[in-house]
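Field log, afternoon session.

UNIT: design team B
ACTIVITY: writing a sequence onto a fixed backbone
BACKBONE:
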């Protein structure tokens, strides 16, 4: 398994994982836009030519904001989510960011457990941040 920057050729698979993972899935065009935006960094986990997961963030001034992360259902609980998250962390540190932020649904136990086990701490709650279903977001931060 390798982790490498996301490319145009990956977008079909990435979008498929996105749709299978979220009720409010990003459009294919949103991922195309990512590739055209210089302040965003997106990566994929690839094994034998197959895309198993992806993650990405924006890097603005000294703050990294994790925008998206998902692993295909059949390949969850293999440590891929953690590896993707660590790769973002490494990049953010290389780019001299001072803090990373992310939002997560309050009910998303797998993601919350992953973030907390990687040192992220809850710093706030955004009321009704998500739709379908409507739900609060927990805001997490990691000082780099
Ligand atoms: C969150 C997600 C990316 C984790 O990916 P993953 O590859 O399965 O995660 P890992 O195998 O690296 O697990 C890392 C840690 O996360 C936690 N975790 C992962 N899945 C979990 C689950 N179902 N229940 C509880 N904890 C879980 C555990 O602490 C785990 O460590 P452990 O295996 O040593 O116990 C994956 O569940 C996913 O794609 N979910 C749908 C999309 C999503 O919700 N993204 C987050 C949006 S904020």
């Amino acid at each position: 398994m390798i982790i490498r920057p996301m490319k145009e050729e990956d977008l079909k698979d990435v979008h498929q994982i996105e749709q299978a993972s979220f009720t409010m899935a990003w459009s294919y065009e949103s991922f195309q836009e990512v590739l055209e935006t210089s302040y965003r960094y997106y990566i994929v986990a690839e094994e034998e030519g197959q895309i198993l997961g992806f993650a990405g963030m924006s890097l603005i001034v000294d703050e990294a904001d994790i925008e998206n992360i998902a692993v295909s259902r059949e390949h969850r609980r293999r440590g891929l989510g953690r590896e993707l998250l660590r790769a973002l962390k490494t990049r953010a540190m290389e780019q001299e960011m001072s803090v990373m932020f992310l939002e997560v649904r309050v009910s998303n136990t797998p993601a919350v457990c992953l973030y907390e086990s990687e040192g992220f701490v809850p710093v706030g709650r955004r009321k009704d941040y998500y739709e379908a279903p409507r739900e609060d977001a927990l805001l997490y931060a990691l000082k780099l």
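LOG NOTE: The two ends are 26 Å apart (CA to CA).
NEXT ACTIVITY: expression trials, pending approval
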